[in-house]
Amino acid sequence: MTGADLLCDTLLVNGIDVCFANPGTSEMAFVAALDRKPQMRCILGLFEGVVTGAADGYGRMTGRPAATLLHTGPGLANGLANLHNAKRARTPLVNIVGDHASYHLKYNAPLTSDIDSLARPMSDWVGRARGPAEVGATAEAMIVAARTTPGVATMILPADAAWGDTSHAAARKIDVPKMRAVDDQQVAAVAEALRRHPGRIGMVLGGEAALAGGIELAARAAAATGARLFSEVLPARVSRGRHLPNVERIPYPPDLARAVLKDIDLLVLCGTDEPVAFFAYPGKPSRIAPEHCEVMTLAAKGDDKLQALRTLAEFIGAKAIVSPRDAAPVGGLPSGTLTEDAIAVIVAQLLPENTILAEEALTSAQRLYALGASSAPHEYMMVTGGAIGIGPPLATGAAVACPERKVINLQADGSGMYTLQALWTQARERLDVLTIVCSNRAYAILKREMANLGVDKIGQNASRMIDIDDPALDWVSLAKGMGVEAARAATCEQLADLVRGGIARQGPFLIEAVL
Amino acid sequence: MTGADLLCDTLLVNGIDVCFANPGTSEMAFVAALDRKPQMRCILGLFEGVVTGAADGYGRMTGRPAATLLHTGPGLANGLANLHNAKRARTPLVNIVGDHASYHLKYNAPLTSDIDSLARPMSDWVGRARGPAEVGATAEAMIVAARTTPGVATMILPADAAWGDTSHAAARKIDVPKMRAVDDQQVAAVAEALRRHPGRIGMVLGGEAALAGGIELAARAAAATGARLFSEVLPARVSRGRHLPNVERIPYPPDLARAVLKDIDLLVLCGTDEPVAFFAYPGKPSRIAPEHCEVMTLAAKGDDKLQALRTLAEFIGAKAIVSPRDAAPVGGLPSGTLTEDAIAVIVAQLLPENTILAEEALTSAQRLYALGASSAPHEYMMVTGGAIGIGPPLATGAAVACPERKVINLQADGSGMYTLQALWTQARERLDVLTIVCSNRAYAILKREMANLGVDKIGQNASRMIDIDDPALDWVSLAKGMGVEAARAATCEQLADLVRGGIARQGPFLIEAVL
Predict the structure, then answer these.
(1) Please, what are the domains in chain A?
(2) pLDDT tens digits, residue range A88-107?
(3) Can you tell me the distance from the alpha carbon of B80 to that of B419, in angstroms, rounded to the nearest whole number?
């Protein structure tokens, strides 16, 4: 058995049976090993940003890691932006990167690079199997790191470690340590603080605390203390819908975020860090919580958030299940010329139960999250790390994870161009993804950011870097080029019809919503 | 004046007046500064791999750096693969990466990452302006590094350094140190060695030594000593054509490379490192030169190669200009069903004088380089670092650098998908690029590599990672989606007609050559 076989077996015996991949020559031993393991589902992305973003989507939906397979330093580099999003989403992910055979490195062949240095910033853990004898232990450490952080664990696999002999070794199922339980003292301190600030409390939910079970627990404490529930600014995943208590999203623009939080005296963090401004602006603070606001951690990111919330509810005597308030209905379908807001309303109205929404349309879909309080039950996922190009891969991975659910990728055109190759994987794997491209033909967010910087007039050079209307991208052709059927909508009626059709069919479909 | 203005002025006064860019919020002060400098040509790429690859193409053709502008860690990450190629090509390039305002970093906002760690592996120099007061000196050091290495110099520009005040400072024109002259003793030692191995010598030419002037000088020494002239395995740029002495390319497959070099007793390096196997294979050596072969350096990569070649020719008394041998004509145009070889012959036959050939079709265009010995004069550029996805951006940058020349990008489909967004930039800038996609619908090179590993049967999982025929990519639609006209050729006659048409027209055009 080769090192590559041992690695595959270790993955499989530990329940990791999906591998998103774009291998190269140095990974051929691993590919040969995968060929001997039909239990492993291998899914090709035609660019590594698709591979890592899909693994992120898979991990966000299942809570279990998928594997990736990337080709040396440049292949890893191409996947780093979406690994950054996965790391920020705390997605469990095992990221396998091939390297030259160890003895070949000193020759500095053209593809040689410092993979460790590249991997570290976007990984929670990095390890290297220096030979076949180290493959088993390194793989096990990688899996433990991915599952317990949880986060991105990168294993560098030199070609000779992959093709070398490991017949003495056997794949082992690993006991993954449980999440750290939050001790009673910490919970009691939070309970005590909650009593001090009735009606002026925010609870920020991340990780499992932002999923249905966590939201229900948090809502009990919130109801008892007059707290508001918030998600992170760009949440990895939040359960949404009229069946659940509402979790407000902290707005992305820092001024708006500060306005939303201005009456909060106590911010309780459950599975998140303190929310801060996404970017700094001259003369404005980096924090978004009010200066006087006390910030307390109920559960850190790696802690057992549900246990902490359960104990908290107990300590403050908030045991009753909270019914969601009657959410205002989304309202009727809009008509006439398509607007950004109309896209959000149409999607919120029509999305079927159990939809997974991968949203990467910050400027176009501003109201979609809020409207979700009145929609059918769904899961909402965003670009956690601000590295654009996550939407199409995220939808791809979510569809692999949940083949029985409809996935809708509401996607900006500028960011969509970063990883449009994901459409091909959706076509190949017959994934049930409906992509709606909000085609405003600009990096619209940057126009606002210029204004935030005090620039009121955009000249020739700036416009050449912000507008993408010359030539206009034709998303119907782009989709067709990758084997995905597509159509264009310019009115609300056309969009609603196409969304209905896209939901009714099985398999990938793309709608270009022209603004 | 802001730090960003000072940086722009420093670039401009030092002759850097093209900026390939994909900025984000943290670079808005830089964008605002560019808006005040109409002398700077700003060219948007819809993905950072396009940005850095285009800067590489520009630098390879002009010998002068273009600037890039990238958005924090993930933006840099997306550009790293082609920065790797640029570094391996020794292309002068100034790579500017925005970062959060320095005081914002400690808040670990979602887009924060260790940019220095990401930049180092693919940069020859990395610097950070820790505030506006450091912008001038950092920019100057960056330019010196880019021009003297030559290579990739990365400057990290925090937002507060960009928007901060630098009105006390002024942009300075910098004296760039000359290339190191090779001393007479080193040249004399090579001359002496050349006399010891008549007829069993290889000279490997890189950098300026592989361009017309260098080749003519090297050919004199070669004629006098019976040496053969070689390019690197994947050269950055070689001048080719029937007007020049032939420079053989060392083959990419190590076994073939070893066969070509087997009778070489002395390898003289001029502007290159010793060529080695691109990858290691079990039981095969990493070197490709014969074991007994002596390897000497006439000029290192940063040395003055032309001076060294001139002195060498003098020392061995080889002063006469060498006429190129009569190269065998390419031969008539092929007919019938399209084959890989036919594509190479058609391009070699039809390419007009002064063409720039950006070739990233390793398996399909194998004979194209060799055929170039008999073609009209042209420049040949390849994927130096093995990071795929360089072809379309390289062609883009070369076309910006040389608007009066036809650029032909002979492109594999698998690698082309990595940076297909370059087509949009070609359309927007009306660049005279003819793209020919060799559509074999597979990572064909990996099939050979599986065989090299001793795997003779490719099963389901391996095939799912190597074949890209399901669904077939439709390059005509993909090009149309990005505003580039395109057509498909399935026979030699169709391809020849379309190539003639593509050459005759101005502006971008794409041909899908279906194999």
Answers:
(1) 3-163 (3.40.50.970), 184-315 (3.40.50.1220), 340-514 (3.40.50.970)
(2) 999 999 999 999 999 999 99
(3) 13
